[in-house]
Amino acid sequence: MTTHTADPPASVGPVRTGGLVALTAIAPATWGTTYLVTTELLPPDRPMLSAAIRALPAGLVLLAITRTLPSGQWWWRASVLGMLNIGAFFALLFVAAYRLPGGVAATLGAVQPLLVAALAFGLLSERPTRWRIGWGVAGVVGVGLMVLRGNWGMDVVGVVAGLSGTAGMAAGVVLLKRWGRPVGVLTFTGWQLTAGGLFLAPLALAVEGAPPALDLSAVAGYAWLAVVGTLIAYTLWFQGLSRLSVAPTSFLPLLSPVVATVLGWLVLNETLTWAQAGGFALALTSIVAAQLSPATARRLVGLHPRS
After folding, report:
1. Residue 270: how many other CB atoms lie within 10 Å
2. Would 116 be classed as within a structural domain?
3. Number of domains observed in the structure of the chain
4. I need a surface site. Which of 69, 177, 209, 272 has the fewest CB within 10 A?
5. pLDDT per position as a tens digit, 160-182
């Protein structure tokens, strides 16, 4: 097996780091299209099929390109990461997307920075700062204001699925940072997508039966999710995770509900209230502020850091 060394941390300067953050942010921005695509294009009541089609083809394509399999302990590590970041996460994400309004599912996902902070303290010995904990809470509030609607019935299965998927991905983010990336990003992404897809495919057949006939809309929806929302997005995501600090990076998925809200407004003609606009601004502010230190933030707003 050919082994590649993981990329070094992005410590060459704020400009390059900012560019890497922007590239990494493309991933959660594309994930924000999942709710619209699921509800408007995909066949109903097929969450496991949707998850499997999204993961397995993309993973197999990357394996065919890189032609590199895990070795040693990376067989089980790649399997664990594939389950947390892809297999279990995709399945639970689609269950939540089918059973809950998109805004509720997005709000549940917004707690990820807080979960990552707790797990990073236990597994990476990274003590959470009050700065990022505070912005984590603000991010949840912002997303809630932006996407929650009244008059929705409590679906316990959907809520548990949304929270469990978020917790699983948070664990995957922290473990990836703890274990590092032993090979190139395409290979590493292919391992995880294939591992997750191989879990999802038989689960979809067992739970939902044979796939239904797909119309052109469904094919287009699955193609978008598999190619753009998975193959490209996860390659950028794992590249960023391996080179950026885990705590600020964990805020980037807040872009998903931001994009989902904008698409609902632009495509579905959903109204945008003043409260939602305020939540939109608060969520974006939380994402940006979490990438900065308190001293840097004070300098940017024209205040002098405390001595």
Report:
1. 14
2. yes
3. 1
4. 209
5. 888 898 899 999 999 999 999 99
